[in-house]
């Protein structure tokens, strides 16, 4: 996957030449599915995020050590958080950005498409095998990509609290990989903003 530029993005190689910067790598794992919620609402895609130890939503991954290359560091973090090997390659890289409110931190974002059966294996391993389960990671969560009444589904999900720039990483990836249309994303963000202003309305 080619690196996509955005106003705040930085080239991966350029970011690696910066002195005194740390590098955090995270990945969005996803799969197509024919499953339907309540037998009628198509789920279309399974997109994985996680509930972190701090109560914020984010993607699996973490800080890469200075001696590691980015993909090796990300694969190591995934082993700890998912309890199984999920190899990540440079082709899975999507975008690198300076972290919004953490000086000298570069966030590198990857997206990897899997089969539905592989995603289910990841979910099972994350509970049964991962050393971080119940510690740094409270659990994997699927992102609801559909709309239900009263802001249910994607708007409600987006109204939660996210770590660093993971919410914008999610929105960009859903658009870039054709999982949700731009029109639906705009509507989901609009409804999420409304829900945040009246969180106890449901
Ligand atoms: O999902 C994410 N997307 C973008 N940046 C993220 C995400 N999760 C965390 N971060 C930022 C903010 C954190 O302080 C650093 C390190 O990430 P973390 O996963 O907590 O790393 P360790 O497990 O501590 O190695 O990246």
UniProtKB/TrEMBL annotation:
Start and end residues of each Nudix hydrolase domain: 20-167
UniProt xrefs under PANTHER family: NUDIX T16 FAMILY MEMBER, U8 SNORNA-DECAPPING ENZYME
Tree of life domain: Eukaryota
KW RNA-binding (keyword) present: yes
Gene Ontology molecular functions: 5'-(N(7)-methylguanosine 5'-triphospho)-[mRNA] hydrolase activity; IDP phosphatase activity; phosphodiesterase decapping endonuclease activity; snoRNA binding
EC number in record: 3.6.1.64
Keyword Flavoprotein: no
Alphabetical list of InterPro entries matching this protein: NUDIX_hydrolase-like_dom_sf, NUDIX_hydrolase_CS, NUDIX_hydrolase_dom, NudT16
Protein name listed in UniProt: U8 snoRNA-decapping enzyme
Gene Ontology terms describing biological process: mRNA catabolic process; nucleotide metabolic process; sno(s)RNA catabolic process
